[in-house]
Amino acid sequence: MAKIQLAFCLLVAPALSLIPLIDGGKGIPKLYDGWMNGQIAKQARTAVGQAVAAGKRKIEVNFPPVPNVEEVRFGTPLNQKFGQNVVAKELGVPGGYKPGSDVSRQLIGFSNMYWAKEIAPAVSGFGKRVSVITAEQVVFNQLKRTGVDFVCSLAGRGQRGDASVKKGDALIVVNPGGEETWDKIYSTYGSPSSPIVILNNAYSTTYDLGNKRGFEEAYYLKRISKGWVFRQYPGPWQAYLEKPDFGLELLETYKTKPSLNEVATLVREESFRRYAINNDRWFAGRL
Fold first, then answer.
1. Residue 204 φ then ψ, to 5°
2. For 127-174, how does the pLDDT look when each residue is reduced to its tens digit (9 = 90+)?
3. DSSP of 84-113
4. Structural contact between residues 259 and 204, judged by C-beta atoms closer than 8 angstroms
5. Residues 98-123 pLDDT 10s
6. Helix or strand (DSSP H, E) at 22
7. Residues in contact with 125: Cβ distance below 8 Å, sequence separation at least 6, in sequence order
8. Secondary structure letter of residue 225 according to DSSP
9. Strand partners, 128
10. Three-state secondary structure along 139-208?
């Protein structure tokens, strides 16, 4: 009997340990493994799916598309690993990630197509097509596995070749620019019954967290000085301190979206109080 119980435990324990990985788990993803092991993809997909199920149709998803956005042009080891082992492989890019290749030179653009592929199942309910519109440089004929029905550039006005975005498509719009353009994009391509996701917009014209256009921030991970801001629908907003050993510590939870200044001040002052100037990810060689 004891042997049977032991065998049952050995079989069940690994399965139980994998349960949180079905949806990526709750709370901020692990730095910087979350980009590599699918945790961010699962969390974002789950959060968007929950937002859509709750009736949200205008959604924002925003997080660094690569582990080290600031140094993407210089090919840091983490970015190279992500480009080679995740982006090029998952998108089926011919020849993979190599120095000088399109995917290496346009890593953010290709990376966001990978993230769109991962999020797409969350917006494709009820048999809807999914179209991805991107404002970034991407060589579309190198995307052999997009995971969506149609991809095109924002400059192409919803068309590529003889195909186009169709009315009623669920939309994922990559880095469209200032928020004033979001409503125009929605009125041009969107439909009241279909979700639209603004994915990884690169800058904010409001200089604050999230947006002011009524798009639900379903998944939001933003680096601030000495830490991070995180929100995973339907959960609260959270402020995290990034410590010198890569560890993250939750400092504050907010029921409603705080201001960027409020969160940044809290995290920066706590970092300085504990570590003075000895909490710098660049000098520590973390990336």
1. -115, 130
2. 789 999 999 999 999 999 999 999 999 999 889 988 999 999 999 999
3. IIIIHHHHT-TT-S-TTSHHHHTHHHHHHH
4. no
5. 999 999 999 999 999 999 999 999 99
6. helix 2-23
7. 52
8. T
9. none
10. CHHHCCCCCCCEEEEHHHCCEECCEECCCCCEEEEECCCCHHHHHHHHHHHCCCCCCEEEECCCCCCCCC
